[in-house]
Specification:
The chain is built from 21 helices and no strands. The chain has one domain (3-417): Growth Hormone, Chain: A (Up-down Bundle), CATH 1.20.1250.20. It has helices spanning 3-6, 8-40, 46-77, 80-98, 104-107, 110-127, 129-138, 146-150, 152-174, 177-182, 187-203, 210-218, 225-232, 234-243, 245-264, 270-297, 300-322, 327-345, 348-353, 361-389, 397-413.
Length: 422
């Protein structure tokens, strides 16, 4: 039987959880760009409200490494399955609760405080989600299929983005501006409950991975996996963290930041720009597919190096493309950026898993992925927002050049960190 068909349930479980992750995260990102500033913060300049909203958006990236340590501990000691179920529940529950939050006009400073708490909960749950999903796929992969199996969670990114972006687009077309601001923005957060339910149904039917079972049979797990990881594999953690920066930077500059810039600075209608992003998102899926097939034929390292160099190239044209005034040029710019993201994101699961031994692998993959996410997913869009406010919008592409350089260094220095035992 074909490997993909034989492992369909495992790959579906890895895919659905990450699709929910990206749906939840991008629903929040879109709402940040469109409504959170004016709804949850005191009246001031739109730029100040937008900056505050993006600071809350970035809070989840600080919570993700904390969640990575917590869920990594149980993932390495208890197992992949139970930990993945818990992370999905916390992540989905936090997203669903955002739908019921009061705004600043009715609750004052309690409104942004509650938004921060739920955003932290969302990030905490996400800290254990991607690493576990990637290991679920990679540790069940036949030899020679590691990159393709490891890409199952990555394909959840374009699916989650498509669902979130498409739903906001439909709401924008169906509702008036007042209806959208009053209650329409809450609908995507409510819908997340359905997606989480599907993800839980799939994951509760899984068994533990063969690699984890074999590791338990060989020796008991470390008492404190994060301690063993940092004592023996710190270099791999640092290299892995640097290696994921480009994929986060490309995604959030091309989605949340670009949407904010286009609708508030460049004069694009919300629905028009969401449609451009929806089309460009298809190139992310194409990039992932091309990258992982190439990675299994050569190596994930080689594909990631090419992707890092391409990220730097995207940075050279990114600002000019967004500010061109041409919808077709903007579409081409976003498509190029997201296609490139496929090459620095698709092979990440197989590459990161290869850097750590099984007894600390959940912790290692999760900590590296989410620590790199702080730089690429939180700091980079916030810096871009500040650069635009300071009149330096033409230089935002330099952030992608820097992100590509960091990933290049991380992938190059990780070669000596592939180990076989803890």
């Amino acid at each position: 039987m074909h490997p993909l068909r034989a492992n369909a349930r495992i790959l579906t479980a890895a895919l659905t959880g990450t699709a929910v992750e990206f749906y939840d995260f991008y629903v929040f990102a879109t709402a940040t760009a469109l409504v959170f500033g004016q709804l949850f913060f005191p009246s001031s300049s739109p730029e100040a409200q937008g900056l505050q909203a993006f600071m809350v958006f970035g809070l989840a990236f600080l919570a993700r490494p904390v969640g990575a340590v917590a869920f990594g501990h149980f993932g390495d000691r208890v197992g992949r399955k139970a930990t993945l179920v818990a992370s999905l529940l916390l992540m989905g529950g936090s997203t669903f609760a955002i739908a019921f939050l009061p705004g600043y006009a009715s609750a004052g400073y309690l409104a942004p405080l509650l938004l921060c708490v739920l955003r932290f909960g969302q990030g905490f749950g996400l800290g254990g989600e991607w690493g576990g999903a990637a290991l679920l796929a990679v540790e069940n992969a036949p030899k020679g299929w590691e990159a393709r199996f490891g890409a199952a969670p990555q394909f959840g990114a374009p699916l989650g983005f498509l669902a979130a972006n498409g739903l906001f687009l439909l709401l924008g077309l169906w509702l008036s501006e007042d209806q959208f601001l009053s209650w329409g923005w809450r609908v995507p957060f409510l819908v997340s409950a359905v997606l989480v339910g599907i993800g839980l149904w799939v994951r509760l039917r899984l068994t533990e991975t063969p690699a984890f079972k074999a590791a338990l049979a060989h020796a008991p797990p470390p008492a404190v996996p994060i301690g063993a990881l940092l004592r023996r594999h710190l270099g791999a953690v640092l290299a892995g963290s640097a290696g994921v920066v480009a994929c986060f930077a490309l995604f959030y500059l091309s989605t949340a930041f670009a949407l904010d810039l286009a609708t508030k600075q460049l004069g694009y209608a919300r629905e028009e720009f969401l449609l451009l992003q929806l089309g460009a998102n298809c190139f992310l899926a194409v990039g992932i597919a091309l990258a992982v097939v190439w990675a299994d034929r050569t190596s994930p390292r080689r594909v990631l190096l090419i992707g890092a160099l391409a990220t730097m190239l995207v940075g050279l044209v990114f600002a000019a493309g967004l500010r061109s005034g041409s919808g077709m040029t903007v579409f081409a710019t976003l498509s190029f950026a997201l296609l490139t993201m496929g090459f620095v994101y698709g092979p990440i699961g197989g590459w990161l898993a290869s850097l750590y031994p099984v007894p600390v692998r959940y912790s290692g993959v999760s900590v590296a992925f989410n620590t790199g996410g702080i730089v690429g997913g939180a700091v980079t869009p916030l810096l871009a927002k500040q650069m635009v406010s300071a009149g330096m919008g033409g230089s935002i592409g330099l952030l992608l050049v820097g992100a590509g350089a960091l990933t290049l260094v991380g992938v190059l220095t990780a070669r000596a960190e592939k180990v076989a035992s803890a």
